[in-house]
Design a protein that fits this description.
The complex is a heterodimer of chains A (112) and B (112).
Chain A (H helix, E strand, L loop, with lengths): L3 E2 L4 E5 L4 E7 L4 E9 L6 E7 L4 E3 L3 E6 L4 E6 L8 E9 L5 E3 L3 E6 L1
Parallel strand pairs in A: 2-11
Antiparallel strand pairs in A: 1-3, 3-8, 4-5, 4-9, 6-7, 7-8, 9-10, 9-11
Chain B lengths: L3 E4 L2 E4 L4 E8 L5 E7 L6 E7 L2 E5 L6 E7 L2 E7 L7 E8 L7 E2 L3 E5 L1
Parallel strand pairs in B: 2-11
Antiparallel strand pairs in B: 1-3, 3-8, 4-5, 4-9, 5-6, 7-8, 9-10, 9-11
The chains are: A mainly beta (112), B mainly beta (112).
Chain lengths: 112, 112
């Protein structure tokens, strides 16, 4: 079956540092990936997505890297700020359906 | 309008009650979703509606009954729930399979 997992459940960084959150997936048919940020008491907030025909995609202060060979996804946050503190989930969709499967989540804490 | 609106935000219900959760979006998205999220866990897919038709039911107990009256609305009817059904219920929508899924803020459900 499908699984999407994370290597690190928690990550603590200093304000201004760069953060890297990792995610592994097992379904080789996965072709669409999304990173979400979820703050306490709120729903997941879309950060950035990437399709399987790409290796890298950049947004504002964020970069997603996709390594299909080892089935690994990462989210890089530049100049991390206290407002970035949240739980970050990777999610993927595989096959020709609408099912989006979430990974376990990483709690990012930014220390001032 | 780029939001998914869920009501109510909080709901406390007894095990013999019947209640409904509501979700609304006006982005023209043709797919809508219900997810369940327990504390410190990732969201888990329950149902998917595509073009107002149920396309995925993740073996959800019949005490949860989804309904899609039109392309903008999604309901989740609740009946005879158990305390273990207490969770954050999230609604999401997407234009299609390969577009970012937009989530609402959720309904915090407590079954007593």
């Amino acid at each position: 079956g499908e699984s999407v997992g994370l290597h690190l459940p928690t990550l603590s960084v200093q304000e201004g540092d760069n953060s890297i959150i990792n995610c592994a997936y097992s379904n080789s048919a996965s072709d669409y990936f999304i990173w979400y940020k979820q703050e306490s008491g709120k729903g997941p907030q879309f950060i950035i997505d990437i399709r399987s025909n790409m290796d890298k995609r950049q947004g504002q202060r964020v970069t997603v890297l996709l390594n299909k060979t080892v089935k690994h996804l990462s989210l890089q946050i530049a100049a991390t700020q206290p407002g970035d503190s949240a739980v970050y989930f990777c999610a993927h969709r595989g096959g020709s359906n609408y099912k989006l499967t979430f990974g376990k989540g990483t709690l990012l804490t930014v220390n001032p | 309008d780029t939001e998914v609106t869920q009501t109510p935000k909080h709901l406390v219900m007894g095990m013999t009650n019947k209640k409904s959760l509501k979700c609304e979006q006006h982005m023209g998205h043709r797919a809508m979703y219900w997810y369940k999220q327990k504390a410190k866990k990732p969201p888990e897919l329950m149902f998917v509606y595509s073009y107002e038709k149920l396309s995925i039911n993740e073996s959800v107990p019949s005490r949860f009954s989804p309904e899609c009256p039109n392309s903008s609305l999604l309901n989740l009817h609740l009946h005879a729930l158990q305390p273990e059904d207490s969770a954050l219920y999230l609604c999401a929508s997407s234009q299609d399979r390969d577009a970012g899924y937009t989530f609402g803020s959720g309904t915090r459900l407590t079954v007593v």
